[in-house]
Structure formats: structure tokens, C-alpha cells
Specification:
Blueprint (H helix, E strand, L loop, with lengths): L1 E3 L4 H6 L4 E3 L13 H14 L21 H13 L6 H17 L6 H16 L6 H13 L1 H9 L4 H11 L13 H8 L6 E2 L1 H10 L2 E5 L5 H10 L5 E6 L10 H7 L6 E4 L14 H9 L2 E5 L1 H7 L6 E6 L3 H7 L6 E5 L4 H7 L5
Parallel strand pairs: 3-9, 4-5, 4-7, 5-6, 7-8
Antiparallel strand pairs: 1-2, 8-9
Helix pairs in contact: 3-4, 4-5, 6-11, 7-8, 8-9, 8-11
């Protein structure tokens, strides 16, 4: 009987003997076990080898959908953006009216980053400006770059440079124009150095990085990227990829921000292939998916990336400040907590959550 090998390394580890041909495969498991993703990857491997198949997804539903609790937060986010001065006075009321009209018809069975992509596309059209936050983004990048030497000295003289650099990277996550929950940047940076990390998988992250040959670091916001660079400089991995958005959205980082921060000097810059305010797996590029699947360790910064990747299997660590009650409850924390959460599905868990061929 013939077999075929699966292309994705982590999935091939589950079935080292490949999959028998012909055969039927049923994948079952609880919510969040990434059943649809696993079955789609098996199907893609088989199709790439010239095979044919019938692939049926049942009871498919996104695991991180919009909640009604998100609606007042979305409205508050726009109010915060209106106060930044990006909108001229005569455009503020029309922008709010358009948002409310959009929300009345929006599909709430999608993830927050997907909805955010559509909202900010509407805002860019309203302003007739492809990057309305460019000036503010540059301001925050320059502000943190001006303090870089002070932060670097803080890390170098620390008892545990890795821990201090990681804490600074988490603190940088407060620079978020799209969040209702705002924190003072410098106050948070000073506080996080000695603060309790509510969910702390940093030691496991440190151990995994020691043996890793490749790292994918998924960035989030401007300003914050400067502190990401400082953290990455203290990570000794041979091949480092840094992912940014493919186009402007709020204050999320793009290639321009990565170059301004000097990230290209220490990592290979790639894009998610999308301009959603978060890495939404379904709409990321093939290049991003390939790097993601082959990376020994993945570091995901910020809440938007978590919302898009929380149910995607891989050796992934989420570093962020919890900015809403909904996400906080999902990860077992409270709003305002500093978090380093290992979100992978281990090989043992995958074995228990999926069934092989008949």
C-alpha cells in the first residue's frame, strides 16, 4: 500500500510513516484543537503531490469571534482616534456615523482583526489618506529611538539581561492607538521592570530559544518595535524573521517602520501579507505561513496577533499587555496584566486531539 509524506514538519512528526493511500481520515477533538487547520494542511500536502480528494469541514466556526462586548470598545477606540487630531473637525461626526452604520450591518462571526481591517479601510477612504497615522507613528518611533541607549544600558547592566529585555518588549505593547485601554508609556516601562508577570512562561521561552535554529518574531506597533529590536539583540538564534503588516493600519508597523528602527540589521523582514491589525492566519501570505510552519520558535507581540493566531498550532509565545476583559478571561488573566503565554499545542496534545487514518 502506498503512502505520502506531509509537507509541514510539526504535522509530519505526528505521522512519521505518512498517510496510507487510499484511506479515509477523520480528525476529531474539542474546540480550539485546530482540527480544520490540520485537515487543510493534510489536504494541501496531498494536492501538492498531484493527488485528488474529497475534503469536508463540518461544524466550522472561528474560535475568536467578535463579542457584543467589543462594540462599545470599538466605538471608544474611534473616539480616541478622533482626539489625536488625525480627523479634521468637519470629518469627525461623519466618521462616527459611518462607523455606527457599518457596525449595524457587520458580520460578528469574524475575528476582531478582520473587522478592524474593514473599519480602518473605511477610515482611510473617509480621509482620502492611505496612512493617516504616519506622522504620529514617526513621533513614537523617534521618541523610543531617542531613549534606546538608556534602555540598552538598563539591559546590559541587569542581573538577567534576557528577562529585562523581555520585560521592556512587553512594556512597549502599551503603545496602541487602537485600544480603548491606554497606559502611560514611560510609567509602564518603569513599572514592568519589577512587576509581577501574571502568566509567565518566559523560562520555557528562554530554554526553547537556546536550542532553536530559527525564530519568527511577529511585531505589533510603532515605538514598540524599538524595544522589540533590543530584545531580539539578546536572542542568539541563527535565523531570525521579523513580520510586519503589508500595509498601513492604525499604528501597526510596516516595512518603513522596521527600516526606521534598524530591524533589517538584525533580522530578515517579511510581511504578514495583509493589513489587518493582527496576523489573521486565513489571510496571511504563503511566505508568512511557510516561515511560521518551519520556525522552531514563534514570538507573537500584542493582542491583535493573539486574536488571529491563538488557535493556530505551533511553538508560539504570546507577549502582550492585556487590554480588554474578554481576552484577559480567555487566557486566565485580568485587564492590565503583563503576559508571556506559551500557546502551542504540543505533540502529545496533538496526538490526543486528532485521529489518524482508518
Amino acid at each position: 500500500m502506498k503512502t505520502f509524506e506531509i509537507s509541514q514538519d510539526w504535522l509530519a512528526a505526528l505521522m512519521p510513516d505518512g498517510i496510507r493511500v487510499p484511506s479515509s481520515t477523520i480528525i476529531t477533538g474539542p474546540a480550539g484543537a485546530a482540527k480544520e487547520l490540520i485537515s487543510s494542511m493534510i489536504a494541501a500536502s496531498w494536492l501538492s503531490k498531484g493527488g485528488s480528494l474529497i475534503h469536508i469541514l463540518t461544524n466550522y466556526k472561528e474560535n475568536m469571534n467578535i463579542s457584543l462586548d467589543c462594540i462599545p470598545c470599538i466605538v471608544s477606540n474611534l473616539l480616541n482616534l478622533l482626539k489625536t487630531g488625525v480627523f479634521p473637525d468637519n470629518a469627525r461626526e461623519p466618521a462616527m456615523r459611518h462607523l455606527l452604520a457599518f457596525l449595524s450591518k457587520a458580520d460578528y462571526q469574524q475575528s476582531p482583526p478582520v473587522l478592524g481591517r474593514e473599519i480602518h479601510r473605511m477610515i482611510r477612504q473617509e480621509l482620502n489618506n492611505p496612512d493617516p497615522y504616519r506622522e504620529i507613528k514617526n513621533k513614537y518611533n523617534r521618541m523610543i529611538l531617542d531613549m534606546y541607549s538608556d534602555f540598552e544600558k538598563m539591559v546590559i547592566t541587569a542581573e538577567d539581561p534576557f528577562d529585562t529585555a523581555l520585560r521592556l518588549a512587553i512594556a512597549g505593547n502599551v503603545i496602541d492607538f487602537g485600544s480603548q485601554y491606554q497606559l502611560d508609556i514611560l510609567e509602564t516601562i518603569n513599572r514592568v521592570i519589577n512587576a509581577h508577570i501574571a502568566i509567565d512562561d518566559s523560562q520555557k521561552l528562554k530554554e526553547d530559544l537556546r536550542s532553536a535554529k530559527s525564530l519568527l518574531y511577529i511585531g505589533d506597533n510603532c515605538g514598540e518595535i524599538v524595544l522589540d529590536k533590543l530584545f531580539i539583540k539578546h536572542i542568539k538564534v541563527a535565523n531570525i524573521y521579523f513580520a510586519v503588516r503589508s500595509g498601513p493600519v492604525i499604528n501597526d508597523i510596516t516595512i518603513d517602520d522596521a527600516l526606521m528602527a534598524g530591524m533589517d540589521k538584525i533580522a530578515k523582514i517579511i510581511t504578514t501579507g495583509d493589513n489587518a491589525p493582527g496576523a489573521v492566519w486565513e489571510s496571511t501570505s504563503n511566505e508568512f505561513k511557510q516561515v511560521f510552519n518551519k520556525a522552531d520558535v514563534i514570538i507573537s507581540k500584542g493582542q491583535g496577533n493573539l486574536e488571529g493566531l491563538i488557535d493556530v498550532p505551533g511553538n508560539i509565545y504570546f507577549l502582550f499587555v492585556s487590554k480588554c476583559d474578554l481576552i484577559a478571561r480567555r487566557v486566565g488573566a485580568i485587564k492590565g496584566d503583563f503576559i508571556v503565554k506559551h500557546g502551542s499545542i504540543s505533540i502529545e496534545q496533538k496526538t490526543n486531539k486528532s485521529q489518524g487514518t482508518d
